Amino acid sequence: xxxxxxxxxxxxxxxxxxxxxxxxxxxxxxxxxxxxxxxxxxxxxxxxxxxxxxxxxxxxxxxxxxxxxxxxxxxxxxxxxxxxxxxxxxxxxxxxxxxxxxxxxxxxxxxxxxxxxxxxxxxxxxxxxxxxxxxxxxxxxxxxxxxxxxxxxxxxxxxxxxxxxxxxxxxxxxxxxxxxxxxxxxxxxxxxxxxxxxxxxxxxxxxxxxxxxxxxxxxxxxxxxxxxxxxxxxxxxxxxxxxxxxxxxxxxxxxxxxxxxxxxxxxxxxxxxxxxxxxxxxxxxxxxxxxxxxxxxxxxxxxxxxxxxxxxxxxxxxxxxxxxxxxxxxxxxxxxxxxxxxxxxxxxxxxxxxxxxxxxxxxxxxxxxxxxxxxxxxxxxxxxxxxxxxxxxxxxxxxxxxxxxxxxxxxxxxxx
Length: 416
Ligand code: HEC
Ligand code: HEC
Ligand code: HEC
Ligand code: HEC
Ligand code: HEC
Ligand code: HEC
Known about the structure:
By secondary structure, the chain is mostly helical. About 55% of the residues lie in helices and about 0% in strands. Mean pLDDT is about 80; it is low at about 30-40 and about 140-160. One heme C binds next to helix 12, helix 13 and helix 17.
């Protein structure tokens, strides 16, 4: 009987701790779950809107607050009506030309950057804004949606997890109350007995002492276990993110601005990235390329002095590499820029408007493949090399020859 009381008093704190933790987790889950079911609206339209948004708008607009090329679209339906938005998306230049004050001001504010026009139906545009409205900004930066994998997959698991938690919570409360009841019954019973020795009496009449609880083995084991679990989760999250560095924009040793050099002064990308049209790697310019201009321009600036120091000490400027494919993948710039005629911005965003270069594309295999599935090989129409291929595809009823059709999904094309 005494031994039983001992065991219960020993494990009770741990039970209480688990209970508290479950409560905490359950409540922390609550707000995150809300928008999924409370958002209302037409789920199919939101999903269609998201697909359109990710394919057409995301390169210039964040569905959240921050500015990319254009403004973040958070709260757009409070700023503008849908009747204004539909013609805007179809042809923003026409809205600006009509003299609409809001449009003109916005255009000027964004340095007269021209937004692409889209031949979407009204319903499609409405679905895009339904998605924007339903969009919730991730709380952590690492939670940014990756490569078309929406967070909906995990919200389904989240539902299960919550049900499980509630059940667990209920069982724990039950055990807790039963144990408490047992304990008080036993204590009362033992108190009526007279043949108890000193130590047992102390145990029976003991008061709740926090210091004892914190030093007890079950408590320490419990804390260690929880700590281990949290660490494990962080590690798994970290592993999922490996190799995906979308949004990566490190601070560089010299605050070199593309916005100034490539944007304002219009220096051609190929002037500095000499391999971008000719070779596999685009290459980063050496300090001597900077000197073509900076032996005259802004010599006194401390930032320019860093270039001088690098040359004097014969040490390259240690630029932090941003885009980086793993060794197992083969990528060739000339194939894409020169042969396929793709603009740098297709993969790198509007670098000429970036103060600090940021990785815009996820650079995952899925990203490469998606583009190869969708992109029509345009130059095929006026290139003798492709004539036979084109004729072959037309015979098979394929009107538009995509990169996929010319073997762009074959493993060996991208993997050594
Ligand atoms: C090539 C970049 C680019 C793309 C792609 C693009 N936009 Fe824009 N968008 C802009 C810019 C830049 C502005 C700011 C006005 C301007 O300069 O014309 C803008 C403005 C807007 C505005 C007004 C924002 C405000 O705060 O009032 C809306 C709404 C909008 N775009 C929606 C869309 C949607 C929807 C798509 C996709 C179907 C899209 N845009 C695709 C560049 C782009
Ligand atoms: C005056 C020289 C210069 C010009 C012009 C220039 N760049 Fe750069 N670029 C650099 C330097 C230096 C770096 C490395 C420092 C940095 O990341 O800002 C760089 C970095 C980059 C990176 C990131 C490289 C990495 O580490 O992954 C990209 C992408 C890029 N440039 C694209 C462009 C594009 C596109 C243009 C044309 C619109 C352009 N650059 C024009 C000098 C230049
Ligand atoms: C089809 C997509 C695509 C296009 C178009 C493209 N790039 Fe890249 N770029 C990449 C990828 C992928 C990497 C990473 C390559 C690696 O790690 O091997 C990269 C890397 C770079 C780098 C880092 C240094 C290097 O050579 O790896 C620079 C600089 C760069 N690109 C500049 C440019 C410029 C300038 C243009 C336009 C002339 C351009 N890119 C066009 C996909 C593209
Ligand atoms: C084709 C000419 C040209 C080349 C090449 C060039 N720059 Fe510049 N750079 C300029 C001009 C023009 C300015 C603006 C000067 C001003 O604000 O008066 C400038 C400004 C700068 C500034 C700002 C200096 C300050 O204190 O305001 C930095 C930093 C800089 N360049 C770094 C570089 C680096 C690093 C390279 C080589 C990768 C480079 N530049 C290559 C023309 C060039
Ligand atoms: C923006 C669209 C786009 C993206 C993103 C893209 N590619 Fe491509 N890629 C093309 C086009 C278009 C061609 C066709 C070039 C041609 O006509 O030969 C091509 C061709 C290729 C080829 C030659 C295929 C062949 O049949 O000869 C390879 C290899 C390749 N890409 C690798 C990659 C890798 C690796 C990535 C991702 C890191 C990537 N590409 C991302 C558009 C893209
Ligand atoms: C268009 C180019 C391209 C084609 C085609 C391609 N891959 Fe990849 N693959 C990549 C790139 C780029 C990566 C690196 C992705 C990353 O770092 O996340 C990669 C990564 C991988 C990886 C490493 C694991 C991973 O997910 O990071 C494996 C395995 C792989 N590919 C297998 C294949 C197989 C099998 C095929 C043929 C069915 C294939 N790939 C076709 C571009 C391609």
